[in-house]
Amino acid sequence: MMQGAWTIARKEMAHGMNTGLIYVFAIALMVAVSYPIFWSFGPLNVFLNKTADLRSFMSIMPYFTMVFVPAFAMRAWSEERRLGTLELMLTYPIPARALVLGKFLGSLIPIWLVILGTLVVPILIDQIGDLDWGPVIGGYVGAGLLSAACLAVALCVGSLTQHQITAFISSLVVLAFLTLFLISEANLQWRFASIARGLLDTRDLTYFCCLIIGFLALNERIIVSQRWRSS
Amino acid sequence: MIRVQDAHKSFGSIVAVRDLSFSVDVGQIAAFLGPNGSGKTTTMRMIMGFLKPDKGNVVVNLDGQDLYDLKRHQRVGYLPESTPLYPDMSVIECLEFSAAAHHIKTSLRLTRIQSVVASCGLGKHLNRHVSQLSKGYKQRVGLAQALIHDPDVLVLDEPTTGLDPIQVQDILDLIQALGRNKTILLSTHILQHVPAICDKVVVIHEGQLRFEGKPQAFAEFDNERRIGVECAPDSELKNLIRAEGFDCETDENAPTQLWIQSQQPQDDLSRLLDLAKQAQWDMRQVYVERASLDRAFRCLVEGNEP
Fold first, then answer.
1. Would the CA dihedral through A118, A120, A123, A128 be positive or negative?
2. For the whole model, what pTM was predicted?
């Protein structure tokens, strides 16, 4: 199964890297993370306040993933449907589970690379001041899990429609609900903040893992059921 | 071989395929004919395992074994109707992806790619993006993808749609060459090519089987054939022919040509020859017009018997 998943993931990554969106995200995230720290006159400026932390990164990450991940994932299934390649792909000797996993990994790896690209900011801060790396590592682990969960949700919701814009808006709505409005224990932002404090709590890890696996499994069910029903 | 047994498939209230049964043996190229919306694509999707029949069986049997799901996908090649391809991939990337998706070992991939590139005449376009290719070359890429894993069974849904006559001939030559050792189900609307490359014809209409047999037997369904007589047709002769119960007309472009409508050309030809002998009719040439596959197809789907 993993061989099939990796084949799909490689195709997705090649496509993802060919689209401008990932570079827009990379630049926007880098600016959003570094601006309050290096250029703004606010309380986070490392030169004015002589304190080194990554609070700006932690505060913007949930909103960034909430918007960017659905934008990046919206074409994953709808494009396959529009081109008719989904029909062909479902006649390849690749199980539907591997297909979903491949789509997931193929989008997740570029997103993680973009997030890891911002590591240059804490490295620079560390040169200037004394940076506590615990919350930084926690923040990056949290960002990784948060983006993976957002992606699983966006792919699953996107598999219900063949229009990219519909996929984007509906994913955004579901993620906004999960990020902002639920009770705190079931809230993406709350769980992320908990990990970003530098404490890896198994409850937070379980929450993210359940969310990712649950939505991927649901995505598989949707693809299989749509396959039998398609006309 | 492909075996479709009492397959039934509906989408809501629309019945796409109704108790359909036919088979295609190893080494056969079967033309799969039917008007648009007759259920051909649905049947092909069921053969590919993309759709599941509501009732009945759709089986690909190889080495005496019925294959399902992934095993079937490994032995069957499929070219869907619209030739779906990724426009931002180059031809070589498409083939590499298809080879990897079919789990072809890395050490064998290059050989397989070289083989299909040669078969499909893609050598000069390997690095071009699919979006830059003509319709004909896109079709070739689709076919190359369907062939990459050297399948035993090929299901081709209108592979010649939108191609120019030379491209059509190239694709048909390739299919004919492949048909020597594969089972091929070929959906097409170009009936003229059927006798040249197909061993079998399957006609469906409104999801039901209308005909299954050899191309020659299919042609016999043309019941609007004419007998051509080259003579000096005058009104007396025409009256004589009409008195025998035939319908006849002269050709405006060839005044010496008389066309006689016939539903049973061989019997009618004998009767006409007897008549000509009795009436001392001066005939220079008499022949039965060749059966038209288009008319045979129309007769079949309109429900006329031969």
1. negative
2. 0.82
